[in-house]
């Protein structure tokens, strides 16, 4: 991952130079993790130009997170949608990762952020698959983390708030320090919840299973795409609590996420999953997913938002790249 090729950032309604997109050390979000919600979105190169994958659903999740945290965005949904496309165009990216973030800025450092402005930023940068091209092809080695995924009664798991990612960062650092590629977090009930930034799917006897909303997971948009793709391919997809036993007995397992895309798991704590390499169901779902995001599948064209034909009506005062 590199920020070297990023020149422009959308910040509070304006496109500004990367070097000017800065905040003060007294920013509430820096002290208390009150980046109240953010999104992770990918834009892919397609034969018809760059296309943002499932932008509508990401905007819906952003605004649902806002509602959960009781925060009113100072911009309309359309304006944030337009900002996403503007930042891609300004930087002339054909593919990239996009990070809108809404946070409490500088005003006071009381826990209640009542005197802090709500700031909105949209960044974009080129980002290779999170767990590597090798991970996509051969699968990754994961470990069950000693850290548990927080319970939704502690804070809403279905919102993407910055502070809650300290839980994910602990898990991923522990996993990497012990020589693994990624972690899997159990939930408070002892079931397998998800990865630090990915949902989990298990396959046994051709049936696909993944957690549901009650199992302390983020309701991933890639998860939803994969569930649709898998049932279109003719597989049964069930939602329900995943146990450690099911993980140990799975023929195949894979992770899904905007950053990690569809990454097979080849080992859990040194024990091979199935035969120790990506299985057929994972392969087929992965192929169909990449065809969809790259605009090679008419069936899933509805999931693509073509940047050059963006229909969002945004209010951006300064477009210095024109
Ligand atoms: N779980 C967590 C904790 C995540 O951070 C992510 C990444 N946003 C996911 C699952 C996957 O969600 P999505 O497919 O929407 O990126």
Set down the secondary structure blueprint.
Layout: E1 8-11, E2 14-17, H1 28-32, E3 37-38, E4 41-44, E5 51-53, H2 55-68, H3 77-91, E6 96-104, E7 118-125, H4 132-138, E8 140-144, H5 165-177, E9 182-186, E10 192-194, E11 199-204, E12 207-210, H6 221-232, E13 237-239, H7 244-249, E14 252-257, E15 261-268, E16 271-272, H8 280-293, E17 304-306
Parallel strand pairs: 8-9, 8-15, 12-13
Antiparallel strand pairs: 1-2, 1-7, 3-6, 4-5, 4-6, 5-17, 6-7, 9-10, 11-12, 11-14, 14-15, 15-16
Helix pairs in contact: 6-8
Task: Describe it.
The chain contains 8 helices and 17 strands. With 322 residues, it is of the alpha+beta class. Mean pLDDT is 95; it is low at 316-322. Helix 6 (221-232) crosses helix 8. The two termini are 27 Å apart. Strands 8, 9, 10, 11, 12, 13, 14, 15 and 16 form a 9-stranded mixed sheet that branches. It binds 4'-deoxy-4'-aminopyridoxal-5'-phosphate. 4'-deoxy-4'-aminopyridoxal-5'-phosphate binds at residues 40, 168, 194, 197-199, 218, 220-223, 256-258. 4'-deoxy-4'-aminopyridoxal-5'-phosphate (PMP) binds next to helix 6 and strand 14.
Residues in helices, as a percent range = 25-40%
Q: Give the CA-CA distance, first to last residue.
A: 27 Å
Tell me, rounded to a whole number, the average pLDDT.
Answer: 95
Count of separate DSSP helical elements? 8
Structural class, please? alpha+beta
Order of helices and strands: EEHEEEHHEEHEHEEEEHEHEEEHE
Q: Describe the oligomeric state of these chains in a short phrase.
A: single chain
Low-pLDDT sequence parts? 316-322
Major sheet summary line = 9 strands, mixed
What's the gyration radius in Å?
Answer: 20 Å
């Amino acid at each position: 991952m590199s920020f070297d090729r990023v020149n422009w950032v959308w910040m509070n309604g304006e496109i500004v130079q990367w070097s000017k997109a800065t905040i003060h050390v007294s920013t509430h979000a820096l002290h208390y993790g009150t980046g109240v919600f953010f999104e992770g979105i990918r834009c892919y190169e397609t034969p018809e130009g760059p296309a943002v994958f499932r932008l509508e659903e990401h905007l819906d999740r952003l605004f649902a997170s806002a509602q959960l945290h009781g925060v009113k965005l100072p911009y309309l949904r359309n304006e944030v949608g337009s900002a996403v496309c503007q930042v891609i165009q300004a930087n002339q990216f054909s593919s990239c990762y996009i990070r809108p973030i809404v946070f409490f800025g500088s005003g006071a450092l009381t826990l209640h952020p009542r005197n802090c402005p709500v700031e909105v930023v949209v960044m974009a940068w080129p980002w290779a698959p999170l767990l590597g091209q090798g991970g996509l092809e051969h699968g990754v080695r994961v470990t069950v983390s000693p850290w548990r995924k927080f319970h939704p009664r502690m804070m809403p798991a279905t919102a993407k708030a910055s502070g809650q990612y300290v839980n994910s960062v602990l898990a991923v650092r522990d996993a990497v320090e012990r020589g693994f590629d990624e972690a899997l977090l159990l939930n408070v009930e002892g079931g397998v919840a998800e990865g630090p930034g990915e949902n989990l799917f298990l396959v046994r006897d051709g049936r696909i299973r993944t957690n549901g909303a009650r199992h302390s997971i983020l309701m991933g948009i890639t998860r939803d795409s994969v569930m649709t793709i898998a049932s279109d391919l003719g597989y049964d997809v069930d939602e329900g609590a995943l146990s450690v036993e099911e993980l140990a007995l799975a023929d195949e397992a894979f992770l899904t996420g905007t950053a990690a895309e569809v990454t097979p798991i080849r080992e859990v704590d040194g024990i091979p999953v199935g035969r120790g390499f990506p299985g057929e169901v994972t392969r087929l779902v992965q192929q169909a997913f990449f065809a969809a995001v790259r605009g090679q599948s008419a069936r899933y064209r509805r999931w693509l938002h073509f940047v050059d034909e963006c229909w969002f009506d945004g209010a951006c005062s300064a477009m210095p790249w024109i």
